[in-house]
Amino acid sequence: MLVIAWANHGGFVAHVAHVARDLVGADVITAEEVAALTETAAHSDVGKTMSLWGS
Q1: Which one, out of 6, 18, 39, 52, has a CA that is 20 to 30 A from the CA of 12?
Q2: Rounded CA gap, 13 and 26, in Å?
Q3: Where are the alpha helices (DSSP H) in 1-55?
Q4: By residue range, what is the domain housing residue 32?
Q5: Strand, coil or helix: what is 28?
Q6: 39 within domain boundaries
Q7: HSE of 42 in the Cβ direction (CA atoms, 13 Å)?
Q8: Are 44 and 12 in contact (CB under 8 A)?
């Protein structure tokens, strides 16, 4: 299994969008699926710094 620690949230979202566009170009997914994947990535916590104290 490949595990990547993203330096920041923006880098993660940009990567998801890039891969999704490549998949559209290869006729693997639709433009609507690209939008859904990118939106889901944008709303995720991947690459965000988490605080144990809520601040």
Answers
A1: 52
A2: 20
A3: 9-25, 31-43
A4: 9-43
A5: coil
A6: yes
A7: 7
A8: yes
Q: For residue 25, is it within any domain? A: yes
Q: Which two tokens stand for residue 7?
A: 């330096």
Number of domain units in the chain: 1
39: phi then psi, degrees, rounded to nearest 5 = -65, -40
Q: Is residue 55 part of a domain?
A: no
Max distance between CA atoms of the chain, in angstroms, equals 45
pLDDT tens per residue across span 5-53: 778 999 999 999 999 999 999 999 999 999 999 999 999 999 887 666 6
What is the structure's pLDDT at 16? Answer: 96
Residue with tokens 């490949």: 2
- Asked if residue 26 is part of any domain, the answer here is yes
Long-range contacts of 29-32 (CB under 8 A, 24+ apart): none
